[in-house]
Structures are given as C-alpha cells and as structure tokens.
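User: Hi! I have a protein structure encoded as tokens and I'd like to know what sequence might fold into it. I'm fairly new to this, so please keep things simple.
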C-alpha cells in the first residue's frame, strides 16, 4: 500500500463542528454497544478533553479525522484516533500509529491508550504490539512497552 498523503495540523475552535460530527460518526456505535452515553453533552465533554493536544488529519483542504495525543516525560498517551468512515481502511490510522510509535521508540518511552471493547481498532493496536494491561466493564487499557 502506498503511503497515505495527509498532514496533521493543530485543531482550532473553528474545527469543533467537524470534530463533533466526526465523533458521532465514529463513536456512537461503540458507545451504544458499551451502554455509554451518546448524548450531545457527553460528546462535547469528551471532544474538549485535552483539546490542546488535538490534531486534524487533512488531505489538502479536506478534513479526514482526528489524532489526539500527549507526551509525558516517561510515557506517551494516545487519546483518540478517529477517521471519517468514508476514509477508513486506507491505512491512515496505521500510518499515524506507526510514526508515533517510531518516535516513542526513539525516545525510549512506552505508549498507552484506552479503547472501548468491541472496537475493531483493537486488532490494529495488537498488530503494533499493544497488550491489555487492565479492563473495565466497557474498555481495555492497553500499553506498548
């Protein structure tokens, strides 16, 4: 597969309507299965969590998704990777994840994330070496050493 052509840019307040619609399109199914709230307030609360760490994935002027992460000195965290449904399956998330993990390897830090049970992204994370370190009723906490 060819390297996906896209860029990351810091999300701004002007991106909020896109990010809200993206969240609904990519998360409602998983949240409903987990019996988590899908109401507007819950989506806005999650959307605004660590919003300074949010990057819009773009191909030219077209917005494809969101990559939200932060780097602490001893551990990095992936908060969200969301790709519009019509752009899923093109290797975008895998490419982002691979680049991020190479940087973490260079910095010699582990990476953690949380994913809702039943989310097909679990298999992607496992392919990249993430292992389940804890579970809740609704999610898996995963870590890659």
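Assistant: Happy to help. Inverse folding works backwards from shape to sequence: for each of the 145 positions I chose a residue that suits the local structure. Here it is:
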């Amino acid at each position: 597969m060819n390297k996906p052509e896209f860029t990351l840019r810091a999300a701004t307040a002007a991106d909020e309507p896109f990010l809200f619609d993206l969240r609904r399109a990519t998360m409602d199914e998983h949240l409903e299965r987990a019996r988590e709230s899908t109401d507007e307030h819950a989506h806005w609360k999650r959307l605004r969590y660590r919003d300074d760490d949010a990057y819009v994935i773009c191909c030219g002027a077209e917005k494809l998704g969101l990559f939200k992460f932060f780097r602490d000195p001893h551990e990095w965290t992936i908060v969200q990777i969301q790709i519009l449904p019509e752009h899923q399956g093109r290797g975008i998330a895998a490419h982002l994840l691979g680049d991020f993990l190479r940087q973490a390897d260079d910095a010699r830090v582990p990476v953690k994330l949380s994913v809702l049970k039943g989310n097909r992204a679990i298999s992607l994370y496992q392919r990249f070496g993430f292992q389940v370190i804890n579970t809740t009723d609704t999610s898996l906490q995963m870590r890659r050493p």
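A useful reference point when you look it over: The CA atoms of residues 103 and 109 lie 9 Å apart. Feel free to ask if any position seems puzzling.
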